[in-house]
Specification:
heterodimer, A: alpha/beta, Rossmann fold, 2 domains, six-stranded mixed β-sheet, B: mainly alpha, ABC transporter involved in vitamin B12 uptake, BtuC, two-stranded antiparallel ribbon, 13 helices, globular
Chain lengths: 393, 324
C-alpha cells in the first residue's frame, strides 16, 4: 500500500484489521509482533496472511497441530465460511476426527501413491484406516520376544508444561518400546526432555536404577542413554566432517587416555560400523554431506551403535530413506535389542512400529492415554489408538 | 585414507609453505641483502608477536567463532598489569599480567559459550570497554617500569631481548606455542571436541559434547596466547599503555585464514597457520625492502585477506560444500 513511494501505515493497519476479522481475531492489535501473541493466534494470523493473497485454492498442511480443541472448532468454522464464499480447500491431516468434520471428499495417499478418492458419506474411520495401511509389507520383522530383562529406564510423572504431562513408563533390557502419537502429540519433546536435551518441570528419569540429572545430556550420554535426532541435517551429522569422524564422534571419551586422543583406534571402529550397516561411501574420508540420505542415516545410527548404548532413543530413524537402508537400520536396531539394550522408538511409520515393537505407549495431546502389547498391535489398532479410539489402559 | 586423499591433505597444509618458499625466492631476486641468515632471523623476530597471537586466535576460528577482537586489549591489559606489579618482583608481575589477560578470556568464554552471545560483537564490545577502562584507570598515562640495573623492571625489559642458544627467546616461544597448540588441536579430546563444535554446534550438542565448556576453554587458550604476546610487546616497548596490541586482531585472523583454517570452523591445521604467519612476515619484509610504506603495506595485507576469503568461499561453493 503505497502513496507516492511511501508506505501508507494507516491504510495497512486498516486492511490488516479486515483480514484478521476474517479469521475471528477481531480484537487483535495489528501492530503487535508475532512474538507477542500466542501460538494459536499466530497460527490464525498465518491463515489470514494466506487469505490476504485472495486465493481460490487453499492448501492446509496439518493446520491444527498448534491449536487447542476450542481453537480447532473455530478454525473449522472459518473453513466452512470460506467454503461458502467459494474457496476450495485441500486439507491435509492425520487426525481422522478432523477429516470427518470438515471434509467433503477424501483422498488417501500411501507411500507416495494415491489409493482412492471417496465421498465422505461413503466412509467410516475404520475404512479410511484400512486404506491408509493397505497390505502389510513383508515379514522381515522380529520373532516374538520371549524373555525381557530387568528395567533399564524408568520415567516417573515426567512433565514439561505445554508439551507433555505426567508421563510414566518403564523400559526393560532387550525391549523395543514404541511411542505412538499424531503430529503434535509431544513425542519428540518427550524424547528430548527425558535424555536431558530439553528441560523438564517435574518428575524424574532413572537409568539402570540411578536417577538421571535433569537437562544434562552429556552425562546421560556418558552413562549410555543416547538420542538419535529426527533432523540429521541440522543437529545430527557433521556434514563437513568425514564419515570416519562422524562414526567415531561418540567414542571421544573411550578413545581418550589422560586427555590425549588416540586416533589410531578410529579407523577400526569406523570400519566396523561401515560394514555392519553396509554404508555405501567412496571411502571413510568422504564428507558425510556427500552421502545419500539413506547412507547419512546409517552413519548417524552407526555413531551411536559404536558406543554400545544401554538405551537408544530413536526419533523417526527411517524417515526419507530408501527401502534397503530401512531394512539395514531395522536389522541393526533388532540386533542391539538382542544384545540387551533398551530401545525407545518414535515413528510415524506404522508398519515399522508393528514390526519392531514389543510394546507401545500411546501419546495424545501430551498425555499418555494407553499402552498396547505386541499381540494387540496392528497398523489399524495403532492408528485408531493415536486418534484416541480403542486404546486400552 | 587413500593415497590421493593423503596427497590432497598435504597440499592443503603444504601449499602455504610453497607460497612461503616462492616468496623467499622473490625476496632473493629483489634484494641481495634478503637471503642472509641475519635477515631471515629478523623476519622471524618480526613475526613472532603476530605468530604468538595467531596460535591462540586459530582456536577461536577453528571452533567456529571467527575471531577474538579483544586480543589487542588483552595484550595491552596483561602488559599494563605486569608493569604495575613489577615492584612485587618479576615472577609475581608476570603471573599477575597473565592472570589479567586470562580473566578477560574467561569472561569472553563464559558469555559466548554459556550465554551464546555473538562472538564478534561481544569481543568488539570488550575491546571498546577495555580501552576506555585502561585510559580512565591510568588517566591516559603510559606506565614506565623502573629500569635501574638489577631491578625487576630491568629484568622485565630484557625478556624481549633474551636469546637462547642464539635464537631470540620470543621466536623460541612462538615455535613452542605452535608445537604445543598443534598437539592440543590434533591429539587431545579438547581439540577433537573443538572440531566438532566448529563443524556444527548443534550436532556437537546432540553428540553429548559439553559445548559451553569447550567454547570457554577455546577463549581461554586465545587469551593465554594474547597475554604472552602482551608481556613481550610491553617488554619490547618498555612501557605499558592501552594501545599496545592495536592491529593484531585483524593481522592474526589474516594469518589464520591464509594458513588454511576455514572461517566457517572445523577445518584447518595449526601448522598451516604458522605458514600463514611466515607468509605475512615475508611479504612485509619484501615490501620494506622495496621501500613500500606501512600504510600501503596495510592496503596490501587487506587485499590478501579479501582474496583468500573469496577463494575459500569459491572453493567451498564449487565443491558444493556450502552446506551447514
Amino acid at each position: 500500500m503505497k502513496r507516492s513511494g511511501f508506505l501508507d501505515r494507516a491504510a495497512m493497519i486498516e486492511a490488516t484489521r479486515g483480514w484478521l476479522r476474517q479469521v475471528g481475531l477481531d480484537d487483535l492489535d495489528p501492530t503487535k509482533t508475532i512474538e507477542e501473541i500466542s501460538p494459536h493466534e499466530a497460527q490464525l494470523v498465518e491463515i489470514a496472511k494466506v487469505l490476504s493473497g485472495r486465493p481460490c485454492i487453499l492448501v492446509m498442511d496439518e493446520p491444527t497441530s498448534a491449536l487447542s480443541r476450542e481453537e480447532v472448532q473455530r478454525l473449522f468454522e472459518i473453513i466452512r465460511r470460506l467454503k461458502r464464499q467459494g474457496l476450495a480447500v485441500v486439507y491435509i491431516s492425520h487426525h481422522l476426527s478432523e477429516i470427518f468434520e470438515v471434509a467433503d471428499r477424501v483422498t488417501v495417499l500411501r507411500d507416495g501413491r494415491k489409493i482412492a478418492t471417496r465421498e465422505i458419506a461413503d466412509l467410516t474411520p475404520r475404512s479410511i484406516v484400512q486404506m491408509m495401511i493397505g497390505q502389510t509389507l513383508d515379514a522381515f520383522y522380529r520373532p516374538p520376544q520371549t524373555t525381557l530383562g530387568e528395567p533399564i529406564l524408568k520415567l516417573t510423572r515426567l512433565t514439561r508444561y505445554g508439551f507433555f504431562h505426567e508421563i510414566s513408563f518403564t523400559l526393560r533390557r532387550g525391549e523395543i518400546l514404541g511411542v505412538v502419537g499424531l503430529a503434535g502429540a509431544g513425542r519428540t519433546e518427550l524424547a528430548r526432555s527425558l535424555c536431558g536435551l530439553d528441560p523438564t518441570h517435574a518428575g524424574s528419569v532413572e537409568l539402570a536404577g540411578e536417577p538421571l540429572p535433569a537437562a544434562d545430556y552429556p552425562s546421560a550420554v556418558a552413562r549410555g542413554l543416547v538420542y538419535l535426532t529426527e533432523d540429521r541435517k541440522n543437529d545430527g551429522l557433521f556434514l563437513r566432517l568425514s564419515v570416519k569422524q562422524n562414526l567415531t564422534s561418540a567414542l571421544m571419551a573411550r578413545h581418550t587416555k589422560a586427555g590425549f586422543y588416540l586416533g589410531g583406534m578410529d579407523e577400526l571402529a569406523a570400519r566396523a560400523q561401515m560394514e555392519r550397516l553396509a554404508v555405501t561411501a567412496s571411502s571413510l574420508e568422504t564428507d558425510a554431506g556427500n552421502l545419500s540420505g539413506g547412507n547419512q542415516q546409517k552413519v548417524l545410527l552407526g555413531k551411536w551403535l559404536a558406543m554400545s548404548p544401554k538405551v537408544l532413543v530413536l526419533d523417526e530413524p527411517t524417515r526419507g530413506v530408501d527401502v534397503n537402508a530401512k531394512r539395514r537400520i531395522h536389522e541393526a536396531v533388532l540386533a542391539l535389542a538382542g544384545q540387551g539394550a533398551g530401545v525407545l522408538l518414535i515413528s510415524s511409520d506404522l508398519p515399522e512400529l508393528v514390526g519392531l515393537c514389543d510394546r507401545a505407549v500411546i501419546l495424545r495431546n501430551g498425555r499418555l492415554i494407553g499402552e498396547m502389547r505386541r499381540e494387540q498391535m496392528s497398523e489399524e489398532s495403532l492408528l485408531l489408538a493415536a486418534n484416541g479410539q480403542g486404546a486400552r489402559t | 585414507m587413500t593415497r590421493r586423499e593423503r596427497i590432497l591433505d598435504w597440499v592443503e597444509v603444504g601449499g602455504i609453505y610453497l607460497i612461503a618458499l616462492a616468496l623467499v625466492g622473490a625476496g632473493a631476486a629483489v634484494s641481495r641483502g634478503f637471503l642472509t641468515l641475519e635477515n631471515l632471523m629478523t623476519i622471524l623476530n618480526a613475526v613472532a608477536l603476530l605468530g604468538i597471537v595467531a596460535s591462540g586466535m586459530a582456536f577461536i576460528t577453528y571452533s567456529g567463532h571467527m575471531a577474538d577482537l579483544s586480543a589487542p586489549s588483552i595484550m595491552a591489559f596483561s602488559g599494563i598489569i605486569a608493569v604495575a606489579a613489577l615492584p612485587l618482583g618479576l615472577a609475581p608481575a608476570l603471573a599477575l599480567g597473565m592472570l589479567a589477560g586470562l580473566a578477560i578470556g574467561a569472561m569472553n568464554g563464559f558469555v559466548v559459550g554459556r550465554l551464546r552471545a555473538n562472538p564478534i560483537l561481544w569481543t568488539l564490545a570488550v575491546a571498546f570497554f577495555m580501552e576506555g577502562f585502561m585510559r580512565f584507570t591510568w588517566s591516559n598515562h603510559q606506565l614506565y617500569p623502573n629500569l635501574e640495573p638489577g631491578s625487576s623492571g630491568a629484568a622485565f625489559v630484557e625478556i624481549f631481548r633474551l636469546r637462547v642458544g642464539g635464537v631470540p627467546l620470543i621466536v623460541a616461544v612462538m615455535l613452542a606455542m605452535f608445537l604445543a597448540g598443534h598437539g592440543l588441536m590434533r591429539h587431545t579430546r579438547f581439540g577433537r571436541e573443538t572440531q566438532l563444535v566448529g563443524s556444527s554446534r548443534a550436532a556437537a550438542a546432540t553428540s553429548g559434547v559439553r559445548v559451553a565448556r569447550v567454547v570457554f576453554l577455546n577463549f581461554l587458550v586465545a587469551a593465554f596466547a594474547a597475554s604472552v604476546a602482551g608481556i613481550f610487546i610491553t617488554s619490547m616497548t618498555k612501557l605499558g599503555v592501552f594501545y599496545l596490541g592495536q592491529g593484531y586482531d585483524f593481522k592474526a585472523v589474516t594469518a589464520v585464514v591464509i594458513g588454511g583454517v576455514m572461517l566457517s570452523g572445523g577445518r584447518g591445521r595449526l601448522l598451516g597457520v604458522l605458514g600463514g604467519v611466515l607468509v605475512i612476515g615475508l611479504l612485509t619484509n619484501i615490501m620494506t625492502f622495496l621501500g613500500i610504506t606501512t600504510f600501503r603495506q596495510n592496503i596490501f595485507t587487506g587485499m590478501v585477506f579479501i582474496a583468500v576469503v573469496g577463494f575459500q568461499q569459491y572453493y567451498l561453493r564449487s565443491r558444493g560444500k556450502d552446506y551447514a
